[in-house]
Amino acid sequence: MRYTVLNKGAAMINDGKVKDKNKNYEGLLEKLKFDEERLTALLKMTQLKGLSEKDYIDYTLEECVRLTRSKVGYLHFVNEDQNTLSLFTWSKDVLRNCTAEKVPHYPITEAGIWADCFREKKPVIHNDYSNNPHKKGYPEGHFPVYRHMSVPIFDDDNKVVSIVGVGNKDDPYDDSDTRQLTLFMDKMWRIIKQNRADQLLKESEIKYREAYNRAEFYRRIFAHDMRNILQAIQGSVGILPYIFKNIEDAEKFNEMVKKIQTHVFRGAELIKNVCTLSDLECSEELEKIEVISILHSAIEFVSEKSTDKKVNIKFENKLENFFIAANDLLLDIFENILINAIDHNENDQIEIQVRVSKLKDKEGSLIKIEFIDNGIGIPNNMKENILQGDYEKRSGSKGMGIGLTLIHTLTKSFNGSLYIADRIKGDHTKGTNFILVFPEFT
User: Fold this and answer.
1) Phi first, then psi: what are they for 291, rounded to 5°?
2) Between helices 250-278 and 401-413, what is the axis angle to 10°?
3) Is residue 367, in this structure, part of any structural domain at all?
């Protein structure tokens, strides 16, 4: 019988080779498992829907902390000036364990080595952070950092838009970690940019649609009202030849001239209101405006233009003066309310009460201005359309569209509120109470 005698040293070498192969095999399996984990996370990241931008960034940062086997993470956005940072978010463990003050804005020149990736425009690793001679130390309450890695995220114009960092991995960070972090955060930025562009496009479409509806509303109401005005003028002018046959009838002649003047005035006011509405987006900034004098001017102007009707405007004011944040267009609100109250009134005697009072709420003092008339009133469904800014449903409203739209739009632009009530509760045919409420400027 033959026996094979193995050399002990050779056996040990062969055993070592097997262990090395097993170790390499295990390392390869670990790498494949990690790559699969990373790809799964990337796929999920592209499929997330319905999250706010903040929630999306928080999710992505937590994934980066997990995939790099880190304990903490942060993200700063770089401001447009490329000189300051804005802290956007920390990972959850930081928020739980760090009591240091979170400074929202930070000059890059004052930032420590954690911002080196911005300065060098490339990923930076600090595997011995605590002994780095260039670190500036921690603020009070900050958690200790012993390893740190950060990467810059670039926009298409090669500007750094954010700095992302992770820290305190058990093993040293390496180039594989920087690739993972860069890949994830670059993908996050591309998705955020696309979402922002989509949102801007959506907002632009909404604004375009609203602008189109407004323009169409103005066109229809303007044409409707101006046609009525011109027909009234034409009718009045057509009667003049018959009056001229009996020139002695001066009273009828003067009455007809006044009607023509009234219609011309209405046309001029209509054109003015349309121009004001069209220019609202370019109107001047708000300033401190004293209101009582503006009210007196509106009452005086409307009274002078309404000589063909019996108009009694009673001004009840319990305040000497007060101020709101507005501009010169405040006069247009008051004039339009008063003109509407006169034009849409079939009584022989037109009564308008203007009341001014002060209210209090939890945010401060409010000024309440009421215009109470005895006119034809406004039905409840039309009140709702006016207050909701419904351009479609308000057209054809007996010529009140432009004026009411102007009142509503201007009041909102002055941070005020418009309310429309019946003069006698429950019976809109007995007149209207237009109520304006503005924050008092103190």
Assistant:
1) -90, -35
2) 40
3) no
Q: Which DSSP letter does residue 253 get?
A: H
Q: What is the pLDDT of residues 30-75, one digit of tens each?
A: 666 666 667 676 666 666 666 788 888 888 888 888 888 888 888 8
Q: What's the average pLDDT block by block, 10 residues per block, for the chain (442 residues)? A: 53 55 59 65 67 83 86 86 75 62 68 84 87 66 78 87 89 88 85 85 83 68 64 65 62 69 67 63 74 91 80 86 86 87 89 92 87 91 71 44 72 90 91 93 84
> How distant is the alpha carbon of residue 55 from its chain centre?
20
Residue 18 lies in a domain: yes
| Residues 90, 102 contacting (CB under 8 angstroms) | yes
DSSP letter string, 5-74: PPPHHHHHHHHHHHHHHHHHHHHHHHHHHHHHHHHHHHHHHHH--S--HHHHHHHHHHHHHHHTT-SEEE
**Quick one: tokens of 223?**
């044409």
| Contacts for 50 with CB less than 8 Å, ≥ 6 apart | none
The 10 Å CB-count burial string (b at 16+, else e) for 81-103 is: eeebbeebbbbebbeeebeeeee
Q: Is 196 helix (H, G, I), strand (E, B) or coil?
A: helix
CB 91, CB 167: distance < 8 Å: no
Question: Cβ distance 189 to 54 under 8 Å?
Answer: no
Neighbours of 79 (CB within 10 A): 14
Q: What does the alpha-carbon distance between residue 10 and residue 31 come to, in Å, rounded to a whole number? A: 31
Distance CA 135, CA 122 (A): 18
Rounded Cα gap, residues 276 and 387, in angstroms = 19
How many independent structural domains does the chain possess? 1
Write out the two tokens for 2: 């033959």
291 is written with which tokens?
A: 């209101």
Question: The tokens of 104 are what?
Answer: 């929202």
Give me the domain span that covers residue 15: 1-47
392-439 pLDDT, tens digit per residue, is 444 444 444 556 777 888 888 889 999 999 999 989 899 999 999 999
Position 13 in a domain: yes
245: helix, coil or strand?
helix
Question: Per the domain annotation, does 15 fall within a domain?
Answer: yes
Tens digit of pLDDT for each residue in 167-191?
889 999 988 888 888 888 888 888 8
User: 64 — alpha (psi -120 to 50), left (phi > 0) or beta?
Assistant: alpha
